[in-house]
Amino acid sequence: MELIKVKNLYKKFSGTYVLENINFTVKSGEFLSIIGENGTGKSTLMRLLLGLSEATKGSVEVNKKIKNKIGYLPQQVEIKADFPASVHEIIMSGFLNSSAIIPFFKKAQKIKANKILEQLHITDIKNKPFKELSGGQKQRVLLGRALAASNGVLLLDEPLNALDPLAIADFFEILEQLKAGGYTIIMISHDIHCAIKYANNILHLSHNSHYYGSTKEYVNSPLGKIMLEEGHHHD
Fold this sequence. Notes:
This protein has helices spanning 42-49, 87-93, 107-119, 135-149, 165-180, 192-198, 215-220, 222-229; strands spanning 2-13, 16-27, 31-36, 57-62, 70-73, 153-157, 184-188, 201-205, 210-214. It is of the alpha/beta class.
């Protein structure tokens, strides 16, 4: 099932196009990795997919099954270091979008939150204050919050930036499990090797062109070959 369809998408900021003629489709259960240098419009594209920004030209069609039910993990999450909430409270806050103005949580949401804690192997720290967690644990909790808000689709904007190699491997293992459980994942990443290892499809944005295709096609494409030869941990 097609969940997101992007057609002839253009986005202009102060007279300059940051995205030009972008076309791709995301199907249910797929893992799409978006890669490319800084300044090529990756985060802008995320905002367009989320409906937080309007296209200059072209269209972003989001299946109504998932509209307003996409779990989003932004690049810099604004949770102050001394924020007093516990792990469990932060995950529960992911439901606030869906229950609109009702501040109390439904039984089904409490059950889902417990399931998320189990999935992410953080049940044992659920009462711990967020500020006391390691970087990898914090990122898992924020992923948990995105899962709470999600109806099976996750958008992750460079979730691995500040993590050490062990935490990165751990995070990918969780993403693999989520994908196996039917989740659709769109992730911006600087790590081309991880993108190739885990994603079904790759959208590579560069300053003068872009490439979209299956991971296998990408690896054999001129652009993919150049990137792999350079051994890009792209920044």
